[in-house]
């Protein structure tokens, strides 16, 4: 019983007393706002909860590339729960003046991608509505 209490005390101290890590990228700095307009946030919202966020890159007004692993598990069947946000600087801020929201029309994972693996972890995604490049300054 004493060992269990010591373990619980350790977990409490670790989670609530220890200093929280710095939220910056290690040895990095924040990018200039909108310096990379081709970057997008691929977001999986299930039951009004953001459960997964992946990055992506715009390759045309209707296509983007992202990781195939973004669609692992039940997410591969629930593409209507994904939103694509382009033109944003901060993932947590909403309604930036340059923000564009699109949805997944369909996606094509690399034919040799094995889920839960790293090889060939890429997917082509078609979005609707198309991105407007005049707003994104690409």
UniProtKB/TrEMBL annotation:
Keyword Disulfide bond annotated: yes
Keyword Disulfide bond set for record: yes
Residues in Peptidase S1 domain copies: 25-138
GO molecular function: serine-type endopeptidase activity
GO biological process: proteolysis
Keyword vocabulary terms for this entry: Disulfide bond, Signal
Signal peptide: 1-18
Pfam families to which the protein is assigned, alphabetical: Trypsin
PANTHER family registered for this protein in UniProt: ACROSIN-RELATED (PTHR24252), HYALIN (PTHR24252:SF7)
Protein name, entry field: Peptidase S1 domain-containing protein
Source organism of this protein record: Adineta steineri
């Amino acid at each position: 019983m004493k060992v269990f209490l010591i373990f619980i005390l350790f977990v409490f101290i670790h989670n609530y007393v220890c200093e929280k890590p710095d939220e910056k990228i290690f040895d990095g700095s924040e990018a200039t706002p909108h310096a990379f307009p081709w970057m997008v946030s691929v977001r999986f919202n299930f039951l009004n909860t953001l459960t997964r966020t992946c990055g992506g890159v715009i390759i045309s007004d209707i296509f983007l590339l992202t990781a195939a692993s973004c669609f692992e598990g039940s997410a591969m069947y629930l593409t209507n729960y994904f939103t694509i946000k382009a033109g944003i600087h901060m993932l947590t801020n909403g309604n930036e003046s340059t923000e564009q929201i699109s949805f997944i029309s369909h996606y094509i994972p690399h034919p040799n991608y094995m889920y839960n693996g790293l090889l060939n972890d890429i997917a082509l995604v078609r979005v609707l509505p198309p991105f407007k490049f005049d707003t994104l300054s690409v």
